[in-house]
Amino acid sequence: ASPSLPPAERCRMLRALDDRLGFKFRYHVLDPRNAGHEIKAANFPGQMRLYSGFASKTWTKALMLLLTGSHEVPDGADFELPFYREYRPEDYALFHNDVDGSNKYRALCMNYWLSKQVASANGDAAASLGGSFLWCGHVDSTGRFPEARRLPPAWNTASLFAPHAGSWHAVEAVQESAPASGLRRLSFTSWLSAPRPPRA
Questions:
Q1: Cβ-contact 144, 137 below 8 angstroms
Q2: Phi/psi at 188 (nearest 5 deg)?
C-alpha cells in the first residue's frame, strides 16, 4: 500500500488481510542467547548489560512507580528479557495485539526504538521508507479505527501500551530504498508479564 494512505485505511486493509492469513511477520532477531547462534554474547557487552538490567527487581519497581505511583510489584510479575530486532528491506509484522495465551498475561508492552533519524524537509521521509509502528487500536462498530496513528521509529524513543483485545498494531514493511537513505530499523521489545488471576 502507498505510504500516503491514511493510517486508518491501512489498518482496515491489514485487518482484512489478517482475516485471510492470520498473523504473519518477517524480521531478524539479534539474540546472542541462542546456543550455536552466529551472534555471540561476548561481542555485545551493552546488550548483555541491558538483559541484566531488565532482570533486576529494582528496574521493575522503578517502572511500576513511574506508571502506577507505587513501587509494589505483584507476586510473580517480571519483565521478559528484551528481544532485539532488525527490520531489513521487505521485513514487516502484520496485524496483531500482543495478547499472550499462556499461564501468564502480558500486562505491559514496551518497544524501544534505536533507528537512526532520517532528516526530511517535509517530515514524510521516514514514513516513505517504511518500518513505521502503525497503531490501530480498537475497531469501532462501523469497522473503522478511530485511534489509528503512524509513528516513525525515531532514535531513542519508546512506546508503552497494555496488550488487550483492542491493542491492534503492526510494523509497516521496510522499503528497499531504506538502507541507502540511512535508515536502519533497530528496536527491542519487552513485556511485563504477570500471573493470571484465578478463575472464580
A1: no
A2: -135, 150
